[in-house]
What we know:
It holds the Pfam family Beta-prop_RSE1_1st. The protein is mainly beta.
Amino acid sequence: MAYIAQIHRPSSIRHAVKLNLMSPEDSSLVVAKANKIEIWTYSEEGLVMLSSKSFHGRVSMLAKIRPFGSSTDHLLIGTSRFKYFTAAWNYDRDELETVNSFEDLSDRHMRELQSRDACLVDPTGHYVMLELFEGVINLIKVLKPKKGRGDEDYLDKAEQIRLSELKVRASTFLFTETQQPKIALLYTEGKGGNVRLATYQVVDDKGQYSSFNPIKDRENELDGLDFSCSHLIPVPKGDRGQKRYMVRNSLVPKALLGGIIVVSESSMTYLDDESNAVVKFSLDEPSIFVAWEQMDGLNYILADAYARLFLLTILVDGPEVVGMKIRHLGKTTKASQMVLLKEELVFIASHEGDSQLVKINLNQEQDAITIIQTIPNIAPILDFTVMDIGGLEGESKLNQYSSGQAQLVTGSGVNECGSLRSVRSGVGLEDEGILADIQDVMGVFALSSTQTENETDILLVSLPVETRIFKFNSDGDIEELDDFLGLSLDETSLLAMNIDNGLILQVTPSMVKLVGSSPEHRCREWKPPNGQHITIASANLEYLLLSFGGATLVSLEINNGLRVIEVQRLCQDDQIACIHVPFQNNGIGVVGFWKSGTISILDLQDLSIIQSEVLRKKDDASVPRDLALVQILPVNVSGPTLFVAMEDGIVLTFKVDPVSYALFGKKSIVLGTQQARFFVLPQSAELSNIFAAAEHPSLIYGSEGRIIYSAVTTDSISFVCPFQNGAYPNNIIVATDEALKISRVDKQRRTHIRTLPMGITVRRIAYSLLERAFGLGCIKRELIGDQETVSCSFVIVEDVLFNQVGQEFQLDRSDEIIECVIRAELPTTYQESLAERFIVGTSFLDDNSSSNEKGRILVFRIDSSRTPYLISSLTLSCACRQLAVLNNQIVAALVKTVVVYSYLETTTGSADFTKVATYRCSTCPIDIVVNNKTIAVADLQKSLVLLEYHPSKDGKSNKLVEIARHYQAYWATAASYLGDESYLESDQEGNLIILRRNMEGLTAEDKRRLNITGEFHLGEMVNRIQRVQMKPKFNAVVIPRAFLATTEGSIYLLSAIPFSTQDLLFNLQNSIASHIKTLGNIDFNSYRSFRNKDREATEPFRFVDGELIERFLDQDESVQRNICTGLGQSVEDIRDLVEELKRLH
């Protein structure tokens, strides 16, 4: 059985609508993200989300309806599985609730629309039109309240009407002066492909629906339209001081307001449906328009496919339309839909980039667009890779996403909206307030003036040439002090802390000072000899260890008036790089050294070495720069842990024997390219956390017997200290490059996303741990004049800040497209070990070319300047769709063929390819997965086939042998090996299936079958699947197996369910589904059941939906008790179980 849970929720917005949902006066913005409905409102700060609800269906349409007699609007929602419902805001429960629902029971063999489903509401609000299938519309009348019928039952039964216009491109209701609505249809004729416009009256004078007969019912038609016509814009009649009238005996009919605009790539055509008058306007620069929105009666904004906005203005003379004009406003994101929220304020929903809230000044010629707010969107995810930031020294990859050690890097967005996104589990850092705009902070230290335990009211801020003191009162007011207990404020402070007996210790470059708040506390000072300067210091309540001159160590006893215990000068010109004195392990200190690159644990009584460890590797000049020895895991689980921040951004950890202080269990993790700074945050029960300020700021803590590195959702942190105050409990002080802030660390992890805008499509991505770099297959689209140019390149970016390194490799031909990128270790003749390489597969778009060159395989190495260098290329007679490596040989999925090539690099600039085996596929391979000597091939139409590579033997040649196959039709998009002879495969309909080879079959034919052991409807198309290799902990509830990324911006974690918990989770899913109703009252089993054009199931098979399971935590106690009835587990046990599952992501 499989368990699937969301790591990142869908972020693509395809549908949006403005309506008065929550009150008659205030409007709301409702957006749809796959199976999620979000309600936003506008405030001075921008858009604020008020509600978010998931339900059992994927949204295919949104519309607003105002029932008769209602003061607020209702929301009409349609799903991709033809279930529809209306929802209204419940003021008592403060949530959306279902009003009525219905289902389209049309013949499933009808052809679905080529474009997305459409829902139109006529301007009077009396009729609703649904477009779901070619040649068919459904008309629904909004009924008036009637005695004997509930107020909620206001939608009449849908009337299905056949159309002769089969290939409808766009449709809209027209503005009329009567209660008889009209619709306009933009369609393509079956013969010849002519584009025409036709208008119909929906009902006659008696309220009967029209038969839409083109001979007798068609009101008007317009022929000779541009083939690129795509949108219809209805124009309101308006009020321009004159009534609309027609002069019937006029020789030239006039085009008056109230008609329709036909939008094409090169022209705009205005039709007055009543006078049949036409006004045409040709564009100076053609473009592909994708969305429009009305600003007022005469002005409309148009968005094109190149993320540009235009203003279309209707030119009038009174009520007469005399022309049109269009002007460019600026660039935004690529729009899927636009919504006017209020005057000049427009929400741009996007599927291919971030959604935006923009202000448009129609009277401004230049810089007319101001971006107010950006809503992140990582859809569509074209490809992704898993970057394990731990395990640099040969450790196995764990891909522990929940711990923050696994980072998912995605190629997201398309064209101008393309970007790299880093997705990592982390903790949030919420700012409580900004204390001061202070720059160049050298350190922050929290002190207590009252010596109250766990209570701090003094903040000491160290600056380059001074120290500043801030005092907090119980109400949260802050005052800066000019003096405090005689502390030195005229130089920087290296250390400040409270110690016993009401004393405060301060270390500056010139002295060590011990001061107290009572008169009996005499100020004590210690200064280094000969005017030398203290460079580093660390202390606990009893000992102070410092270095002056960079080469002398001094141990001081604090409680004995800063008595010097021992002084030691380093020999052999070595210098001290870092010092740490732990709180829990009294009497020892840890020191890191520059020249030798070692760390040593010292006895503070005589500064003798207890243990020492050399950290520097061969040909590595990195040195330790910061240290922390803390009890991060419970004592019964582990002893203290030593953390070492190296200069190159690597953090090393050692387990420390609490008696002998021996170091063992060395591990490493990468937090950046420069050293991290450690700040110890004491916790309860003598445990501590560590805040690591680095390029990837992280909170390091213990959980479930392991050390967790959780990303922190903020950047540019310089210094941190814990701060406990009555007004600010459980907070930390954070110093950034710009300001000093007081912040609170969230207790729960959440997904942290970092974005690197690329402005191009990142189609393929691969990660090399050895090179610490990503190889990107990029597509760049440019519009030069009215010509579109496309170019492809292979780019290297480093793995910390995602900045490009070296020069990109530009493909020579403009019609060559990168299809796949992988990293591999390949053999060479000039070195013993395998060489790290990137392999790129391409295809040529020009099918009419007489050349036999249809694709290439390119092998790159990264040179000393970190530029990709082409070693060798292999010309192919067909496109290379996917690549993999089998036993140091290259496996290429070509069109209709899988080929195995032997590869041998003869020099640094040449290599030999030799074809050694081939296999003919059913149609076209989409994805390939290699496991040992087995190759799984996901076919475009024919599901999955397993091949086994047989090397030459006894004079027989190498060959690929089919050993198993899934015999059902299945339009695959991605595949992955899960282990235990099982494979996961996704399709274009949003389904997932798990296939397992029937090794226990009785006959050879049985063993050749791949049987379905699980199937599930995800509702989103999966673009890429990456396998997870994780060591399961003992008694794990589920075992992670794969990450999945979708076109809607979702990322899922699929896990295997051990036999011991299968029945419990399956029964829990059924119980939750029966007790919890979602919007639309759609049945869970119906929503998650497998369905494609050939087969339809009634429920998911051997799959557990993590999203449904986690809803258990949102229910009140009584509902939880009802759910747990019959499960054999208490409410508390089930709650613990679900919380453990949630911690996976």
